[in-house]
Structure formats: C-alpha cells, structure tokens
Amino acid sequence: MNYNIAVMPGDGTGSEVVNEGLKVLKAAAARAGFAYELTHYDFGGDRYLRTGETLPDSAITELSGHDAIFLGAIGHPEVKPGILELGILLKARFALDLYVNLRPVKLFPGVETPIKDKGPAEIDFVVVRENTEGLYASTGGFLKKGTPDEIAVQESVNTRKGVERCIRYAFDYAGRPDRRGRLTLVGKTNVLTYAWDLWWRAFNEIGDADYPRIKREYAHVDATCMWFVKNPEWFDVIVTDNMFGDIITDLGAMIQGGMGVAAGGNIHPGRIGMFEPIGGSAPKYTGQNVINPLAAIGAVQMLLDYLGQTEAAGWVESGIIHAVSKMKSLSAGEMGMGTDAVGDLVAEFVIKG
Ligand code: IPM
Ligand code: MN
C-alpha cells in the first residue's frame, strides 16, 4: 500500500505535536511495511494574516486527492476567534463532506481521571457525532437586526439521508470486534420533537432491518452528561447530532484525562478522513518543547485505523500507554521530559513492540 497523506500542522504548538505524530507514523510504516507520501500545507493563522486566505477552494480540491489529512491545531492569538475555526476546520468538514466526527473516550492505564472510583475498565466508549448538519448547517438569519425588536433564528437541519448515513456508521462501529455491540442514541426526544423524531425512527428502522445483533439504547443528552460522570461504563458506542456531540465530547475528553490525550477524526468513510488532537494550539507554549504530543499521536493511531492498518494502530496505542507510564504528568511543562522525548518513547515502542 502507498498512502497519500496531507499534513496541516496549523498554528502554535501544532507543528511540534505533528512532528511527533509523524515520527510515530514513520515507525509504524516501517514495521507494518506500508509506504506513504506526505504533502505539507501551511494553512493556519500565520498564512491568514499574511494572505487573507483560510482554506481556499483550490486547497479543498487538492486535499480531496489524499487518503487522509493529519491536522495539528487551529487557533492564533492575533486572529479574531471564529475566522480560522469556520474558515479552516468547518470548511474542511463541509467541503469534504466529512460526515462522521469520531471521538474515542478511553482512559489509558496510569492516566488520572477526575471521576472517583472509575478506571480504564469503566471509561471506554466512542462517540459518533454527525458532522455536517444540525445547528452547524448555518441556516437561519436575523430579522430587524440591531433594533430592540431584533430576532435571531438558528435552525437545526436534519436530513433523513444525513442522519441515516451517520447512524449506519455507528451501527457498523458497534459491531466491530473491539466493541461490545451496544449503540446508544443520545438525543432530546422529549422536547425537540421534530429532529429527534426523525433520528429515533431512523435509528430503530435501520437497527431492526440491518443490525439485529446490536443492542440499542436511548438516553437524553442532559442525562448522558450525568451518566458520563456517574456510570460511564454504561456506554459502548454513542450516536448523536452535531451540537450535542460537540458538547458531550468535551466532557468525554475531561473524563479520559484531558486535552493532552484526546484525539478525534472527521471522516467520510471510504473517501477521506481528517484526524486531529482536539485540544487547541496552546500558543503560549510554542517552541518550548513542553507540549504533550500524545493527543496528536492518538490522532495518528486513529488515522492508521481508518486506513485499515488496524494492527499498526494497536501498536501505537500500546506505545502511548508505555509513554504514559514513563511521564510524570500529562500537562504541558510538567511531563518530566520534552515533547520530542515523548514521541521517541512511542516510536521506539512501535518499532520494537
Ligand atoms: C470541535 C470544536 C469545533 C466544533 C470548533 C473549533 C469549531 O469544538 O471539533 O469539537 O465546534 O466542532
Ligand atoms: Mn468541540
């Protein structure tokens, strides 16, 4: 196999963590025996300040020719909040139709969780968030803007096709050998009776017709937040809409040990996937070799899994667990070693097994 991988380090500490991710990718490729080619792109805050460009249409065309994208972090202190998020991250999600946002919430051995009496056996689930519709579809508008009578409408768009493809992905995921065959729909059927009626019907119709062996559950989104803290072991795979998924995955990141380890993927199955550490660009740590690269390395693990290099993905996960056991802390500046040393630990482990 020869994969085409686009690399977008982005802003702040993005390039430092991406370097460590690439180190691990190289080790995984050497051991697994696959080849890959990298294309680097400098989209991010600096380029925006220089050229006014975020992610132009020509870049979308180029990116779409790749098997996967490895993204560092987006966010620049001199750029107004929203510009890069909308112009780069959300633009890529929509233009490349990356309809699944995949967020594993897994507590690795040795990582501290704020949840009392819960460990790796209890905190191990995956959130499948719809990534192109819902409240993120940007439909709605203002009436009488700027007047005392102003009205702002922000609509949640839920298409049967969009909901169905996301739910099917989640059912398939719940059926993987490394999952426990349980899929929970997280919604708000008691109040949002149009959107969640459609989701509910699609979920049950698809489940009945094509996934009889997957156990189906339902939880309201507010109760889900409670369960994440009280009984996280209740979850295996979750499927939900864009906005709810955004909110619950930040809570998920915290219970798995924080932004230092949380990774995510934006996927159009069979076409392309974009993988990223989900923490920000942490600009104040730039260039100091103190940022934790494990989330970016976790993104490489997800990228490998997406490409079908399942075994290599497993080595990377073992390497992350190995590195955690040697680190003093997962927080920037307190790891007891440099960013590059963490990457070396994982890469060496991947090579040697
Ligand atoms: C995420 C982020 C993004 C989102 C922001 C940066 C636009 O919070 O990936 O979860 O809201 O989806
Ligand atoms: Mn978010």
Describe the protein.
- The protein has eleven helices and twelve strands.
- By secondary structure, it is an alpha/beta fold.
- A ten-stranded mixed β-sheet has the order 2-1-3-12-11-4-5-10-8-9, with helices on both faces. A two-stranded antiparallel sheet has the order 6-7.
- The structure holds 3-isopropylmalic acid and manganese (II) ion.
- Manganese (II) ion binds at residues 246, 250.
- The site of 3-isopropylmalic acid has 4 residues, from helix 4.
Task: Give descriptors for this structure.
binds manganese (II) ion, alpha/beta, 353 residues, globular, 11 helices, binds 3-isopropylmalic acid
Give the number of helices: 11
Structural class: alpha/beta
Mean of residue pLDDT values: 97
Number of strands: 12
* N-C termini distance: 22 Å
Percent of residues in helices: 40-55%
Rg measurement, Å: 20 Å
Bound molecules: 3-isopropylmalic acid, manganese (II) ion
The percentage of residues in β strands lies in 15-25%
Uncertain regions spanning at least 5 consecutive residues: none
The largest pleated sheet is described as:
10 strands, mixed
Q: Biggest sheet, strands in spatial order?
A: 2-1-3-12-11-4-5-10-8-9
Give the helices and strands as they follow along the chain. EHEHHEHEEEEHEHEHEHEEHHH
How would the global form be characterised? globular
